[in-house]
Amino acid sequence: MKISYNWLKQYINITQTPEEISQILTGIGLEVESLEKVLAVPGGLEGLVIGYVKECVQHPNADRLRVTKVDAGGQELQIVCGAINVAAGQKVVVATVGTTVYPTAGEPFKINKSKIRGEVSEGMICAEDEIGLGTDHAGIMVLDENAEIGSPAKAYFKLEDDYVFEIGLTPNRADAASHLGTAREIAAYLKTKIELPDNASFTVQNLVLPIAVEVEDPKACPRYSSLTISGIEVKDSPDWLKQKLSVIGVRPINNIVDVTNYVLHGLGQPMHAFDADTIKGNKVIVKTCAEGTVFKTLDGVERDLSADDLMICNAEEPMTIAGVFGGINSGVTHQTKNIFLESAYFDAVSVRKTAKRHGLKTDASFRYERGTDPGITVFALKYAAVLIQQLAGGTVSSEVSDLYPAPVAFFIVQILYKNVHRLIGKVISVEEIKSILTALDIKITAETEDGLSLEVPPYRVDVTREVDVIEEILRIYGYNNVEIPSQIRASLNNAAKPDKDVVQNQLADLLSANGFNEILCNSLTKSAYSDNLETAVKILNPLSSDLDVMRQTLLYSGLEVIAYNQNRKYPNLKLYEFGKIYHQYQEKFSEQHRLSLFLSGSDQPEQWNQKEKLVNFYQVKAVVDALLKRAGVNNLVVEEAESHLLDYSLSYKSGSKTLVTFGAVAKKELKKADVNQPVFFVDFDFDLLLKQIGRNKIVFQDIPKFPSVKRDLSLLIDEQITFNQLKQIALKADRKLIKEVNVFDVYKGDKLPEGKKSYALNFVLLDEEKTLTDKAIDAVMQKVAFNLQKEAGAEVRK
């Protein structure tokens, strides 16, 4: 949203610089994304001064040129001029040597000292179009006799450069979507007053052009204000109005449309001017039209209306889409003599849905769909009428029609001082709180020792609760005025009852980012998948034998998805599902949340520079570990699992409860679902995972100041020995120094004794207090080797 610095000064007395206003706006929640200086005219008339023509004689070598002597304020210049109206005694605009001038048409050029037909010329006496002030080139500009010689031309023409703030307006700040709204916020911060534009001169001159108004849908249009003006002249707007609109990026059209845009961006109230002579039946009806009604908008596009689109209609047909876009025949043209002026308050949800349905975004819909001020429609209407009469003539030819059957109520909010202090983090005096609320136009209706009863004006659409009011107080009080305490007491731990949806979304984001696709399967399945029908939840009236029980595991629904895809030549799959499983124990029913993962096919398809790489067990384990790390769950016990569903598997346990089991799906289970390729399955107990997250304590520490050291050991061990056993034995040697134990090579083959395998382990050692010496490292590694030999029967290979 673009806001003009000069325009703001119409509503508030600002002494601060544009840069200071930028800081204020950002500090109160209206973030200024950029600040741009805009010159009143290109070049800003820099280098142009007021001169006095002391002498003007015929050029000796050219019939159409004159040689002049010009006093430019302390210096006398000889200037050759070709204007037919130049004469001695005139005060003129002079471009001195070195000045760059910016003509209305054409490229800028620099004034140089030169000779023209043999006579020296030390500048240029300017015409209007030569310096960008207009299009007239009939002759030089002859100024008023009171113009001060040598003074800047910029000061004479009273040109004022402007600054434009680009504000990143958030959707909840509809109250600030105008110059008045922005000024209101600055005034609240500076503890000063707003000056509204004057519409006191508004009067109804006659009643010769009455137009009846009906509102058939008061919910979508709670307030509709209007009047008529007759005998206007549609023409170009004056320069001041064109400049006001142009500086914020609005293209001037004509004096009537420009006034409505001026009021829109000034007061935040969208308006529309209709050609009154095109309103059939002399009647305006606010209603919806039949589904599928064809309506051509101002851009020439025919649109099929929804039965929910609110329309402004005449007695026979729709004229505009209310609050969004005008119709092809609803606008004002240069032939328009009489207008019907609309200033309405439309329901934000209705406008938002209509604008989205038709893909239309306009300045009006931008404000209506966020929420406008229902209390300003008549004020804006009268102000616009006064401006139109000033710029286009005409007379107000009807009473103000204001249909407002159910006034929009103020928001009633109660605040407690203790909550204000608690949420802000600082005790603010009661007088300061009341002063801020009053400055924000929030009325205090009652007061107690504990708090206040308030009425919040409806234009503050986002201030409906106590916490919203406290946020308003903090905005104006100033975030920077809340001191940062020397000690911040905060916890990094997860909540005792973490939000299920938040955790699910976090894990889903991680999986999706790593190439997994989410599936959502039916909780009904066939009893052939149930290993124990006694615990299955049976459907009393099943639609078919394939949907006769509730699923007891997520495995088979996932396998059916894999079978469906592989039959259509999509064998490489990475899937996940958050779902529920169900059991029945006598007359009691059990419902559990689970997270399942499926990996099958190739992890890396075959290409010219690499062979096909199938998904393996260790990739599955890496995904499981990543999910647990993301959830912040640690200190789990790893065990080999026994499951008839899986050929080989591991489980992570918390105490006696299994958190996750994963492995390769047994061939007989694959056969049940007609899957003909290996599948890896991960089964998380999601309910237990949430409990673990709630119990988990986050531990943090400084980054080590000293370097770590790596050492390797190659071991010959019995086949039944697991890596986890070796890891636990190794850590006993020195838990303070040994930070990590990893396996980086495993070998089984005929070169080894029967029943043996070779493991290569990597150890990471670190002393957080000092640099490790070779002596200390060797001592730890010798102890590790000794423990492995003693407890695991390992043979250290040289």
Can you characterise this structure?
The chain is α+β, with helices and mostly antiparallel strands. It has six domains: 2-40 and 161-190, Phenylalanyl-tRNA Synthetase, Chain B, domain 1, CATH 3.30.56; 42-156, OB fold (Dihydrolipoamide Acetyltransferase, E2P) (Beta Barrel), CATH 2.40.50; 212-403, Phenylalanyl-trna Synthetase, Chain B, domain 3 (Phenylalanyl-tRNA Synthetase, Chain B, domain 3); 411-480, Phenylalanyl-tRNA Synthetase, Chain B, domain 1, CATH 3.30.56.10; 500-695, BirA Bifunctional Protein, domain 2; 709-797, 2-Layer Sandwich (Alpha-Beta Plaits). It is 25% helix and 28% strand. It is built from 19 helices and 42 strands. The strands form twelve sheets. Strands 28-31-32-38-37-36-35 form a seven-stranded mixed beta sheet, sandwiched between helices. The longest helix has 19 residues, at 774-792. It starts with a strand and ends with a strand. The mean pLDDT is 91.
